[in-house]
Amino acid sequence: MLFLKIIFIIIFILIMEVIMIKQKDWVDMRNLLASGLTKTEIAKQLGVSRKTVFNNLKKNSTPIYSRKKTIRQKIESFKECMNLRLEKYNLTATKLYKEIQNQGYLGKYGMVARYVSFVKDSLASKAVLRFETLPGEQAQVDWGHFGKFYDRETKQTISLYCFLIILGFSRTLYVEFFSKADIFNLAGNPRL
């Protein structure tokens, strides 16, 4: 256990040495050295190791941060195929993951799921042209089953159905309940 703690501390120190200091810290190191402080005192004051102070005081200019070259992701070569499939069909990330695995994808599911979520968000944000009608021109009609209920008056179990009309222009909704879903109930209804 002690051995693991020592290795952890060594790795932590090495990582801290690799971390780049800010330009302000580099300027502060120079100013503190010019004011007469030792390198050890500078390290304590700035909260860095002595090695960091020694290495940065050797440099003639402020440290410049540059990004490491990005690694090409495993998913890159499959994005075009996935885009085509998502535009044509509303596939889940799991389904797409299985499809591209069969094509040779070696990456993880999480990468595919994040990409599919990103693509679906951009596809959903596209504008949709709404189908508009003139008043009295169109209505949508449907029946729905609401289950079976016990009628206390007749002492029987009956099925309850819903008749629904939505007008195309105003989106006005009309709902009525019946015990049978057939045309005869509608024909005998004076409200319709």
TrEMBL record:
Source organism of the structure: Candidatus Omnitrophus magneticus
GO MF term set: DNA binding; DNA strand exchange activity
Keyword vocabulary terms for this entry: Membrane, Transmembrane, Transmembrane helix
Signal peptide segment: none
Segments crossing the lipid bilayer: 6-21, 158-175
Protein's recorded name: Transposase orfA for insertion sequence element
InterPro entries: Resolvase_HTH_dom
Protein origin, superkingdom: Bacteria
Domain named Resolvase HTH: residues: 22-53
Pfam family of the protein (one): HTH_7
